[in-house]
Design goal:
- This protein has a six-stranded mixed beta sheet with strand order 5-6-7-3-8-9, sandwiched between helices. A three-stranded antiparallel beta sheet has the order 2-1-4, with helices on one face. It has a three-stranded antiparallel beta sheet with strand order 10-11-12, with no helix packed on it.
- It has two domains: 200 residues, P-loop containing nucleotide triphosphate hydrolases (Rossmann fold); 31 residues, no CATH class.
- About 3% of the residues have low confidence.
- It has eight helices and twelve strands.
- Strand 6, helix 6 and strand 7 form a beta-alpha-beta unit.
- It starts with 7 loop residues before the first strand and ends with a strand.
- Helices cover 33% and strands 26% of the residues.
- With 296 residues, it is α/β, with parallel strands linked by helices.
Length: 296
């Protein structure tokens, strides 16, 4: 193990991810189009060397430096396009960083999107074994924990049904249950809990808290600030691909909420007694991040 980790689950230094927009990834319908594209490739490279390619480059992440200790539950927050999902894909080793490096201690399990790691034609039981093996579990381990996985996911009746017939909620429950029961050292969860109902979300929060109490590390991406505040002791706020703030959640959330957040409500226009019916907090894109009130 690298000495830089030293009780740190994740250490990132100078981490960046760059994408080339347009021109770089060509899709060809015929072999003739492919040959034509290959002939034009040197001219595209010359254009890059001439310095006229900057408009085609996009930094999804840039110059990220952070350390996450073992056992910490960290929320990753930011607007759409801030780089949250890209960061988790790098940590999951789905994609490689363009610059910098990241070191991770131990087994990593990730839940990045509904149905990821599942084969639609296989049954729930078969997908449990396949997905768990991908995450590093031996078959005997899976067999030992099968009942717990199925019970937590609440798919007992559909265990031997192809998952292509599952609802999105069933997909999420089963995928989360597998990821949470493989005993990962680092668990990465990206917004998928938004698909489940409120009851299952609370069960997931309980399970993630349990994972943290066992000394394991969790990174949790969400636009739901209520969940972030309830679950995460620390938060990482990404803005335009860079770290805007990283620290205790109670310190980070006010900075995020005050950054481009609008307040909406009903107010009395005179001195008579009025009624505050509802408070909604939305970000600059109109996404609801908090609400409270009642209906008459």
């Amino acid at each position: 193990m690298h000495s830089a980790l030293n009780n740190k689950a994740i250490v990132a230094s100078g981490l960046g991810k760059q994408y080339l927009l347009g021109g770089a990834e060509q899709h060809y319908d015929t072999f003739r189009d492919l040959l034509r594209g290959m002939m034009k490739a040197p001219f595209r490279k010359f254009k890059k060397l001439s310095g006229n390619v900057e408009r085609d480059l996009f930094w999804a992440l840039r110059e990220l430096d952070f350390e996450i200790p073992e056992g910490q539950i960290t929320g990753v927050i930011g607007r759409n396009g801030a780089g949250k999902s890209t960061l988790l894909k790098i940590l999951s080793r789905i994609t490689s960083p363009t610059t910098g490096r990241v070191e991770i201690h131990g087994r990593v399990a990730s839940l990045l999107e509904v149905g990821s790691g599942f084969h639609p034609e296989l049954t729930g039981r078969e997908n449990i074994y396949m997905n768990a093996s991908i995450l590093g579990m031996r078959r005997q381990e899976v067999h030992h924990k099968l009942d717990d996985i199925v019970q937590f996911a609440e798919v007992e009746r559909f265990l031997d049904t192809p998952v292509k017939r599952y609802s999105s909620g069933m997909y999420v429950r089963l995928a989360f249950s597998v990821a949470a029961h493989v005993d990962p050292d680092v668990l990465l969860v990206d917004e998928v809990l938004a698909v489940g109902d409120a009851k299952f979300q609370q069960r997931c929060i309980g399970k993630l808290s349990e994972v943290g109490q066992q000394g394991r590390t969790v990174l949790f991406v969400s636009h739901n600030m209520g969940l972030i505040q309830e679950l995460c002791s620390h938060s990482l706020y990404l803005k335009e691909g860079r770290i805007n703030h990283y620290g205790k959640t109670n310190d980070v959330l006010p900075k995020y909420l005050s950054d481009g957040v609008e307040q909406q409500g009903e107010w009395a226009a005179d001195d008579s007694q009025g009624t505050l019916r509802q408070i909604r907090l939305v970000n600059a894109q109109g996404e609801r991040i908090f609400s409270a009130g009642y209906r008459s």
